[in-house]
Design brief:
Elements: H1 3-8, E1 13-19, E2 24-31, E3 37-42, H2 45-59, H3 75-88, H4 93-111, H5 115-125, H6 135-145, H7 151-165, H8 178-185, H9 191-210, H10 237-249, H11 256-265, H12 269-273, E4 284-287, E5 297-300, H13 303-311, H14 321-332, H15 341-354, H16 357-363, H17 368-374, H18 382-388, H19 393-397, H20 416-425, H21 428-435, H22 439-448, H23 458-469
Antiparallel strand pairs: 1-2, 2-3, 4-5
Helix pairs in contact: 6-7, 7-9, 10-14, 11-13, 11-15, 16-17, 21-22
């Protein structure tokens, strides 16, 4: 038969019965749409019918999403089987049933419960490991929980945690990873700056862990921090003298007692700022403020500090203390100035004076390891050490270095002994012209230094007495 005649055939299939040597059989015959002939035999009519239904759909171009298969299940059972297959979500139903059978056996063995009872108990008693918070909400809770800390420390926490919040305040706190923290800290090339921000962020995540807002502190898995620049420096003998001289000249010596406490007793600046005058005893200074407030201590008052405090009593840090220290720093002309340089200087001279690391560490609220690591043999001239502990007010008055304060006129006051003679030698109005100051400035200076002034009418009586003699 030619191809054209095949195409003229009716393209449907049919089942015909025929007999072979021993039994009946059924044949499916017909033509595909392309003209190819189909001829296939089956032992039973059911199989032939199923095949006929399948190929008729294929010939018409239909795609079936089902497969005809002989089964012993009734219609309701087939519906249930299909539903179970859909619930399995790609897994084997046998595997799922086996898994839950094992769970039920384990629960039964451990607690003599059914799986349903175990699930009910879990639903009733389960609590999530973390309370999920956005990073912004966590930051606000963290800052509000920092009760009783110094304002400077609170500002430090605000600045460091701001890095976490800046790009996406709505990001979940527990989603932060080690990689995220590394990326935030990467711009800080200076080792000290890097460590400052790293410590602040680490403190925040430590708080978050304690309050069940995250499971770990990602900072603990950061690489080893870079080596920090050594931040220990001390003033030279000449720089110390210029510092004390400048302190006596600045604002009538308002900062002298504070400077001397730092220089001779070794307090930290934060401890000085929170030091009440009542905590300066006869022999010791009690310290329970500053950034080490959790470790209160008492440090002895060396004889030279007693001398300075007798002349310049401590009434608390003066108003504008940090501005005054900035001016003193300029007047000192120090080659290198670091934070806590007065404390470093004090500890270095204490160590060489006492030759006792544990005692020096105890007095200054630090460890023996720190003393040995940073302060050993910093000063090695015995004469310089002796001179330091003898820097009395009288010694500093004799210092001839020219002291300059940027934008501020320096008044070269006479010594207290000289000033006491001068105020009784001539009226304050004439003395003010000689000293190039106002008479009110002289009064203020005398009051500050305990110098008695003539009473009102004294110079009028002296004038009348001199006139009577003439």
């Amino acid at each position: 038969m030619t191809a054209s005649k095949k195409k003229d055939k009716i393209f449907h299939f049919q089942i015909t019965e025929f007999k072979n040597k021993t039994s009946k059989a059924w044949r499916v015959t017909g033509y595909w749409p392309n003209g190819d002939r189909l001829r296939k035999n089956f032992k039973n009519k059911t199989d032939a019918s199923e095949y006929l239904t399948k190929i008729e759909g294929e010939a018409e171009g239909k795609k079936n999403d089902y497969q005809l298969t002989r089964t012993s299940l009734n219609r309701d059972q087939l519906v249930e089987a299909e539903s179970a297959t859909n619930l399995a979500d790609g897994s084997s139903i046998c595997e799922i049933i086996t898994h839950y059978k094992k769970l039920e056996a384990a629960v039964k063995q451990q607690a003599d419960l059914t799986l349903d009872q175990a699930v009910a108990f879990f639903e009733k008693h389960y609590r999530p490991e973390v309370e999920e918070l956005t990073i912004y909400t966590a930051q606000q809770r963290f800052l509000s929980s920092r009760v009783g800390i110094r304002e400077k420390t609170l500002t430090h926490y605000k600045n460091t945690t701001r890095l976490l919040v800046a790009k996406n305040p709505e990001r979940m706190l527990h989603h932060f990873t080690v990689h995220d923290i590394e990326k935030l800290l990467r711009p800080y090339k200076n080792p000290n700056s890097y460590l400052t921000y790293r410590r602040g962020i680490s403190g925040f995540f430590t708080w978050a862990m304690k309050n069940h807002h995250c499971l770990e502190n990602p900072c603990t898995r950061l690489d080893r921090p870079p080596q920090t620049v050594k931040n220990i420096a001390i003033l030279s003998p000449d720089e110390i003298k210029r510092l004390l001289k400048a302190a006596t000249l600045l604002d009538d010596g308002a900062a002298v007692s504070s400077v001397c406490i730092l220089l001779f007793a070794g307090l930290r600046p934060s401890e000085l700022e929170e030091l009440p005058p009542k905590d300066i005893k006869t022999e010791r200074i009690r310290i329970d403020g500053g950034k080490m407030r959790r470790s209160p201590r008492a440090t002895s008052i060396p004889p030279i500090l007693k001398v300075w405090l007798e002349k310049y009593p401590f009434k608390g840090v003066p108003k504008g203390w940090r501005g005054k220290m900035s001016k003193l720093k300029e007047a000192t002309k120090a080659k290198r100035w670091v934070n806590d340089i007065l404390r470093h200087t004090s500890i270095s001279y204490q160590l060489e004076r006492d030759q006792d690391e544990p005692r020096t560490a105890f007095n200054n609220g630090t460890s023996t390891q720190m003393i040995n690591q940073h302060y050993r043999d910093v000063v090695d001239d015995p004469e310089v050490i002796t001179e330091f502990w003898e820097l009395s007010p009288e010694t500093i008055e004799k210092v001839k270095d020219k002291i300059e304060f940027k934008g501020k006129r320096i008044i070269e006051w006479p010594t207290d002994t000289q000033l006491k003679k001068l105020v009784w030698a001539k009226p304050l109005s004439r003395l003010a012209v000689d000293l190039n100051v106002s008479d009110s400035a002289i009064r203020k200076r005398c009051k500050l230094h305990g110098i008695e002034l003539p009473k009102n009418g004294h110079w009028q009586r002296e004038f009348q007495r001199a006139k009577a003699v003439l």
